[in-house]
Design a protein that fits this description.
Blueprint lengths: L1 H15 L55 E10 L4 E10 L2 E9 L4 E10 L3 E11 L30 H4 L7 H4 L25
Antiparallel strand pairs: 1-2, 2-3, 3-4, 4-5
Keywords: Cuticle, Signal
GO molecular function: structural constituent of cuticle
Protein name: Larval cuticle protein A2B
Length: about 200
């Protein structure tokens, strides 16, 4: 692609700089000569010398984290919360690639679960689970519940509700028994005015 571009540019330069060389029997037309315009000579502008200031090269390279070939740690904790019944503990130690630990907790049924675990590059992670009988009586979550207030039945706000069943079922006698209230006598049928037939084309 670059070769084609160079070839095309070379051809363009050759055509632009072509000169007609008069050969035998070919004379160039005489062009009128124009007087030359004398332009005043302008001095080149003088700029103050620019000093180059090199920006400080600051390469932010993340330093590698220090490698500890023999990491060691040890920790433990105990929790005994009498308000929630949460009782648990854990202890763990590490020496090199070998981790040993144990944790225990009181389960919901009151038994204590004890888990002893080890981890190393040869055997991987191993855990042994033991259960002890009900050490502590199972503690239910503490929640203070107020006894519900006795329900008081207030008198109805409306002493008598009119039956709308027959009025709504006017013209549909099969619906009147379904809509009629079961708590009192039905009201006499009311004559409703007939509604004019509405066509969907009547709306604009």
């Amino acid at each position: 692609m670059a070769q084609k571009l160079i070839l095309a540019l070379s051809a363009l330069v050759a055509v632009a700089s072509a000169v007609v060389v008069p050969g035998p029997g070919l004379a160039l037309p005489a062009y009128p000569s124009y007087p030359s315009l004398a332009l005043p000579k302008l001095a080149a502008p003088v700029y103050p010398a620019l000093t180059k200031v090199a920006a400080p090269l600051v390469a932010k390279v993340a330093a590698p984290e220090p490698y500890d070939p023999n990491p060691q740690y040890s920790f433990n904790y105990d929790v005994h919360d009498s308000s929630t019944g949460d009782v648990k503990s854990q202890q763990e130690t590490r020496s090199g690639d070998v981790v040993q630990g144990e944790y225990s907790l009181i389960e919901a049924d009151g038994t204590r679960r004890i888990v002893q675990y080890t981890a190393d590059p040869v055997h991987g992670f191993n855990a042994v689970v033991h259960r002890e009988g009900a050490v502590v009586k199972a503690v239910a979550p503490v929640a203070k519940v107020l006894a519900p207030a006795p329900l008081l039945h207030a008198a109805p706000l409306v002493a008598k509700v009119p039956a709308y069943g027959p009025a709504l079922a006017h013209g549909y006698p099969g619906l009147a028994p379904a809509l009629a209230p079961a708590y009192g006598p039905a009201l006499p049928k009311l004559a409703l005015p007939a509604l004019p037939a509405l066509s969907p084309l009547g709306y604009h």
